[in-house]
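Inputs:
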Amino acid sequence: MNSLRSRLLLIAAAIGLSVFALFPRNTAVREQTPDGTFVETTKRLWPLKYGLDLQGGMHLALEIDESKGAVADKKDAIGRVLTTVRNRVDQFGVSEPVVQQAGDDRIIVELPGIDDQQRAKELISTAAFLQFQIVDKTNALEKSLPRMDAVVRARGLDVAVAAPGAAKGPSAAAPLSGLLSGDTTKKAGADSAKAAVAPDAVAKDANGAFTRAIQPGQFPGQYFVKETDVKRLDGLLSDSTVKAAIAPGKVIRFGSDTIAAAPGQGAYRELYVLDSRPIITGEYLTNAKPNSNQLEGGFIVEFEFNAEGGRIFRRETGKHIRDNMAVVLDDRVVTAPTINSAIGRNGQITLGGGTLQDAQDLALVLRAGALPVAIKVAEIRNIGASLGQDSIDKGKLAFGIAIMMVIVIMVGYYRFSGMVACVALALYIFFTLAILAGFGATLTLPGLAGLVLGVGIAVDANVLIFERIREEMDRGKSARLSIDEGFKHALSAIVDTSVATILSGAVLYQYGTGPVRGFAVTLVVGVAASLFTALFVTRTLLLLWLDRTGGTKPLSI
Amino acid sequence: MLRIFHNTKYDFIKWWKVAAIATIAFMAIGLASFAVTGGPNYSVEFTGGTLVQLKFKQPTDASKIRAALDGAGIKGAEVQQYGGADEFTIRAQDKELVASQAAGADKVEDQIRSALSKTLGADTYTVARTESIGPKVGEELSRRAVLAMVLVSIATLIYLAFRFEWRFGVAAVVGTLHDTIITLAFIKLLHLEVSLTVVAAILTLLGYSMNDTIIIFDRVRENLRTAGRTSLHDVLNRSINDTLPRSIMTHATTFAASLALLLFAGEVIRPFAWVMTFGIFVATFSSIYVAGPVLLWIEQKFPRKAASGVAARANDVKPKRAGEAVTR
């Protein structure tokens, strides 16, 4: 009786603990308000977390991109990337994001419940390297063009494009080169002493890879390129011999946005020739925020340098009054305004096009800082929230049906003892969920499947015991003795199977990833819970029955 | 008291030749299929590649999606209906496409997204799920999956050798290997895709099959103690019959649960459910007809020393710890 009481107390305690573990509690969450901003609030939440595959979201693995130059100290670099990415994710405002290092050279980012996945990916993986560079006024491009064309021709880099270009004939190429050569002679001719060479070179290269595609823009150093040519020229410009042909101390950069020209003329992109030395970079930025552009419409990002940055910026801009200064983000020119007077700590970047969200995102990445090295995506998985909800709903349905079928089978076959087993089964589910919640484990779709399957497997222990009890009763033993012997004999098989399952679960956890780990966790927790319910709860309930009946009635099993 | 298969005396082991032929035939069909059309389909998780799952507002046709991709020059992507006529998956596992993902796993996905929104209209569908795996991650995931399988087998072998005798462990692991091959053949014949989830299902199934074998071997261990001069053949038969009601009940409930998963838990988990549902039969079969005969074969090749007399036999087979637990 005493032992029965302590058994019941222990079960009651386990139930109590489980209720506590599963009870909804106040959790600090970050929520998006209808106007798009994020606020910290507390909410009463069920403590069991859903994995990304159930609640929807994005899983992202990032690696250092070494395609454009090796990174010397990878360990240090990945650490700094981690800090920046964490900064950005924090400012992005997602509830319960995960940003962690995996292995030596990878960063895992998990953003639950993200609805605009493309945007989130951009925000995290963009380098956000901000530079301010003075636009060239010395016609460096015009001087370099013949040499650049010659290099391209000599190395045969333009072959693939030259052929179709030639086939199309004058209609496409002629007007462009006509515009350009007229302009070039006017400008280059004026200040070039090598008049003997220049006309010859221009005439010779009118169909050169660069010359035929580049038109002068609105001020020196700015040019226009047809959008259709951008990709080709970008490819050519990344070639090291072509780079070497550009005037020393200058770099060529494209604009970030496409400009729609007059109807029928197609889209254009700006191209700039800039001093390769930036007057200042984004590392001095202390703050950046989006705003709407009062004068011209559209949006701007206002930024602020620290004291040292402000000094440098004032000095440099003071030297370059009347020049154009290009704001270069990740090697693309965002805008290139004229410097009217020396600028101090506060400045602004005018976005050519784009929405408030673009301005917000730019401000965010500028605030969070640039990535120290280029990174690339090694793995990305997105699960829509509706698909996740669908999985939850269907998983619950399957779970309910599985339980009902198991109850029918067990009660139909074992009658009273079957009902005892069902009580144990209910407790098994309850305990499993509670342990998962208590350890802060995440419930994934395979985990849910493991839970459903666990219902089937958990009754195995009960079945083993009941069959043994039946055998003992067949030998004419009393109910009490049969129960004792039945549990004793079933024990070794139950322990062996459980340990084997826990072993596989542990290996799965160690070597599995993502959802599979969730599965391994539910499997192991499930086995532990089923050991307790089958060996302890079922036995206690049968002992309780013995106690009530005095062991005189035959056991319904 | 409702009873099924109570006190049966079926000679299960007698049919082992028939069973062997049946299972070898199934394996042969599977392997032949491997030889003709290559191994099973591995998911993008293992091969690297891109999977995009779309849900359209209106039922549409796979050929339209295919045309949109072709128009954008994305070759070697497979379009399949997934569930209803408004859901489709696009799989890009083509070698060239995968190789291009080395520079950034999201490249192909971005191409597919822009091709679709340009041709089909961005508001006619939603992207329900995407997986873009770079080749390096794919290799890592497959290496880890294989490692997990091997380690599970080794861990169980060691545990069984420790708890039983080595011959039981070997027999159980051979049964497990059989299950793996048969399941792979089944996966191939059903055109299921081997994903991480399916690997998890295979590992669960191996654990389940191992359980089943352990239950029978546990009985063998117990029955051998009172076996006297009875041959292992007969002891095995008796043990299978003894545990038959338990086997039927457990398989019935587990089958019910995995059937519920198969029918109601949705498309994403279906491959997992297929493997489990099929696996229950395989596990039952292999515990009786693979692990059992292998145990007998080992017994023939390496007979126990002093295989006569009750005491000697009992001592030999009595496991160090389990014996205590049982006889205490």
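The first helix of chain A runs from residue 2 to 22. Flag for discussion at group meeting.
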